[in-house]
Structures are given as structure tokens and as C-alpha cells.
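Researcher: Going back to the complex we discussed earlier. I've cleaned up the inputs and rechecked each line, so this should be the final set. Can you rerun the prediction on the complete assembly and write out the structure?
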Amino acid sequence: MTDAKPDEKAGRRPRGTVTVATIARLAGVSSPTVSKVLNGRSGIAVDTRERVEALLREHGYRRTDNTSATPIVEVAFSGLESHLAIEIMRGVEEVVRDRGLTVGFTDLQGRAPRAGRRTADLLLSRRPTGVIAVHSAYRGTYYQQLTASGVPLVVLDPTGEPVHDTPSVGTTNWSGGIAAARHLLDLGHRRIGVITGPPGFMCVRARLEAARAALETAGLTLDPALVRSGAFSFDDGLELGRQLLGLPKRPTAVLCGNDLQAFGVYEAARRAGLRIPDELSVVGFDDIEPARWCGPPLTTVRQPFAGMGNAAAQMVLALAAGQPVEPARVELVTSLVVRDSTAPPPA
Amino acid sequence: MTDAKPDEKAGRRPRGTVTVATIARLAGVSSPTVSKVLNGRSGIAVDTRERVEALLREHGYRRTDNTSATPIVEVAFSGLESHLAIEIMRGVEEVVRDRGLTVGFTDLQGRAPRAGRRTADLLLSRRPTGVIAVHSAYRGTYYQQLTASGVPLVVLDPTGEPVHDTPSVGTTNWSGGIAAARHLLDLGHRRIGVITGPPGFMCVRARLEAARAALETAGLTLDPALVRSGAFSFDDGLELGRQLLGLPKRPTAVLCGNDLQAFGVYEAARRAGLRIPDELSVVGFDDIEPARWCGPPLTTVRQPFAGMGNAAAQMVLALAAGQPVEPARVELVTSLVVRDSTAPPPA
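Model: Rerun complete. Updated structure for the full complex:
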């Protein structure tokens, strides 16, 4: 995955023990240049920088001078999860505050395409004790640069994307999908529609395949005509809901990829003059705060965001203290919260 | 407001120029003891500490050693504004990030009664460059301790409580209240109900009195039977909405104290079988994100939370740089956002 050729001898060192001097030698630069890359300083040619970063990643460079780090745990969002952010921040803060550390907030929303590097530079120049990157934020240049820096890093991952080279916290999407589908089956639904998020996300696959498995083990099949995919947004929930409710044989219930999509289906039902839950059952995923406010209160699968923040904070502080993080992947359980948006299908 | 007796000579110094040594002399303690109080250190008797803090506040102590502060602007919430928090944090971050500072997050939600002091101790011990306290968080022990510490402090205040001794950012609640009421009057409503927040908040008074003024200048009166007050919550909106909609002569429109109350009224209307906007118009206040998702999308008065965070950050950085902040109170404009929850009254 890199075009740099590692020195054979250095390659035999265990991961995480390579030094700045070794990286400098391999890259053909001075040690201060490597330090500049690690600390987000400017004034280094892009190709030099990328060569150094590739070597740092390849050799699994880790910081050994964490005692001089600033007492901050930075939480980085990508802007897509703003409706989840406060619960996550609270979970992180609960663990971090009593150690005398600050919980830092960074959001990549609305940044220019090259802003990832600038944001990562700024973040690294603050020399944080650790970084918690919330899913989409961990992709691309930004993430590459963070992993290269050797700063203690944990991915908090509501999208179910296991990251094998970085410790991460997720939830049990599959079990949540099963619970949601079984709830509808138990109520007597047989024509169940599914609105999913973008198929590139593993959580989307897990929830969709769980719904299929629940139906098939109940002796039914998931009708492909009743499956729609779109963004994790209100707008796509509205449009895809409109499509499903406009079918000649419309579903009596819809499993949604997240709560925002479910709110969109609510609006599609309202426009179509269909009452929830009497004429249509709707199930969300996430259990964000507005799920309790919508009319009627939404049945949904709860992801424990505060607990995820809590777990991620414990992991990142352990990494910062030089302790091993085992297991490196944690999945917290989801739970079905039954409210008023689900009922038996109309007779 | 304090039982300490200030030295006459020290009392003649302009506010903000008193030294640690002077405070120590007035309090009858050593300078290191005053420094401990300023930096949230433990091991000082409560009465000594309170005496020192009272003197610091009285003399308007300000830090002069801000160059040694940690590059963090801390944003402190009280837990009541979690649905507003991310937009505020983004606004703060936009200003702060390019200066190389971290945006810190603290939430007092769910803390024990004495936790305010512990939280303030932790916050001060981090020696932040500045603190932005979001309204309710600025009350009580916590706020007293922050003002005593001399740390650059700005109050971000969505509740319209002007604070005369601390720079603050609010919004034009009165104008927002006028715009909301006039919108309903223009649609032809004459029986207008009002659900307000807790009457102790100035924003609540401003919005209620604005509604009354709009009605009276239109030749109408605000019927006291149609006014209800409660917490800024979904639950209180639901209960107070239920009361208003159960009246023999129910209102054709309801002005709500915030969006959460409006969502409660939506649910009360749904349970009463009343369609919005055909049979009932509803107006919120705040324009939080779920306002676009509820069925139907909510007409509401927008408070520019990101702009407030932006303004508060600029003020706190100016204070930290030793620059004067004039004016010390900023009010950003509110604006009516007309969506689908308002229509002419039923014929």
C-alpha cells in the first residue's frame, strides 16, 4: 500500500518500537523533519511528507514521549453524526474529566476538500494525549495522517466498519436488525419494507441481512421490490418512503436504516394520509432524542452512544498510558425500544 | 453582596488591575494560597477560599499571565441545552481552530449538587485561555468561582438573561416574539394560545410580552385563559397543549416557548385528532434541526446558535488578548422561518 521501500533490518523490529531516527534514515531526511511531520508543522515538501508518513504507518510508529503531551483527548466528528455528537461527547467526558484532561471538539463539516490535512495539522500541533475519531472522520488523508503520527487513536464507529489496524468501538448492528424485524413479525406483519443507508457501510449490510435472516427463518422472503437504499437522511427517508407507500401493494411496515430516515417515512405517511401505527408501522435505528418527540413516539433500536464514548475514552487513555488494549475491537449491545409507531397490520 | 471588608486604598484601584499580593493581604493569607484558589487546587479551608473568591470578584481581578495559559477555549453547558450544543460548538470552533486552540467541552448534566465546585476546580486547573459558559451553567457556585478566578469569561445566553458584570451574547427575543405573533395575525388567527417557558427566564418574558404587544397593537387582547407556562420540554408542551386543546373554546393557533414545547403540542394535537395546520397552527422558537423533520415541518423563530458561538469565541479571545470588549452585550437577530405548521384558521 506504499511505494516506499523499507529497510530490511528496520522491518524486523516489532511494530510500535521504531524510532524517529530510523524513520529519518529510511526516508533520507533529518530527524527534525520527521518530528515536524509528527507534530503537524508546516514547511515540508508534500512528497517528503507523504514518504515519511507512509514509513511511519508501515512501521507502526508510536509516540514514547506521551508525558509531554497536552492533557486533551480530542474527539473528531465528520459532521454527519451531529445528532449523535452530544451523547458521545458526554460519554467521553465522563471518563476523561476526572483525570484532569480536557475533552476537545473538532468537526470536519463543511471543510474544503484539502481541509482534512489542515485540520489534522492543527490537531496534531496541539499535541493531544489521544484522539477519538468518529467514523467517517477516520477516512482519507485526515485519518492517514493521524495514524502516521503515532498519537493514541481509537475509532468510534456507529457505522459498523471494523478497522483492523486501529482499536475501535462499535455496536451489534446484526442483533439490532434481528430484534427490529422479529418485533414486526411478532406483531403479524408479512409485507415488510426495508429502507437502508448507503450500501458501502457495513452496518447497512448487517441490518439488511439481519432483516432477511429474520424473515427467512420465519418462513418468509424479503421482497426485493420492497427494499430501497439511500442516504442516512430525513430527505431520503421521505423520498424512499413515498416510493414504498406508492406501490400497488404497499408494505404494512417499514424498517428504517436510522431514525432520520424513519422521520422521513413519517412525513411520507402524513402526506399520503396514512396513520401510524394503525395503517403503517415504522421502526428506526439509533434512538436519538427526537425519537421520543415525534408523533407518535418512535419504536427504534437503541445504540448506546454515551457508552460508546465511554469505552472509546477508556481505550484511548489506556493506549496513552502505554497499556495494551485487548480486545482491540469492542461492540456494545443494541436494544429494541418499543414505543407507539408499531402495531399489528390493518386487518 | 459580600461580608468581606475591602481595604480602602485597594478599593480605589481601577477594576481589573488588582494584584494577587493585594488580594492576599486583604484576605490575610499568603499569595500562594490565592494562586491555589485561582487555579482550582485543593487543600484550602472552605471559608478561606470563599473569602478570597469574594475579594477577587469584588476587585474585578483579571489574569495578567495569560501567555502561560493552556491553548484551550472551554465551552461549559449545563445539560439543559444539549439540543443546541453542537451548533454552538461548531460556531465556537470556526473562530478558535485557526488560532491553534482546542475547543473544550464540559457538561454539568447529572452532576451532584456540590459538583459545580469540583467541575470548576477541574476546569480552572487546566488553565484555559478562556471559558464560554452557556446560560444556566453560569449560575451558582460554579459561576461565582469562574468569575473570581479572573479567567476570560463570556456568557452565551439563549435565555435572554442580560449579565451586567460579564460580557455576553444573546438574541433578540422580543423581535422574534413579535414576528411569530404577527405571522399568525396575518394568517387571520384571533384566538391565539401561548405556551411559555419558566417565567424566571427573561427570554420567556420577552416573548410573552411581545405576543401581547402584537395582539394589542392589532386591536386584540391576549386572553389569560389561553396562556400556560411550563418547562422548556416536550413533556410540558404535551401537557399544556392538552390543556389548551381541551378548552371549550380552544385556540386556533399556539405560540410555543421553544421547539421542544411545539413538538409536545404536535403530539397533543395528534392524540386529540386535530390536523396541523388545517385545524391548528403551531409556531416554535429556536429552529433546532428536528424542526425540519417533524410532521409537518415546523414554522419557528430561528436563533442563530452557530453565530452566537462565533461571537462568544471572538469576545473571549479578545478578552484573553487583553483587548476591551465593546459593547459587552451583543444580541444577534432572530428570524421567522415559515414552514408547514401554520395556515389560516378553519373557517
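Model: Worth noting: The domain at 8-58 of chain A is CATH 1.10.260.40 (434 Repressor (Amino-terminal Domain)).
Researcher: Good, that matches what I expected from the previous run.
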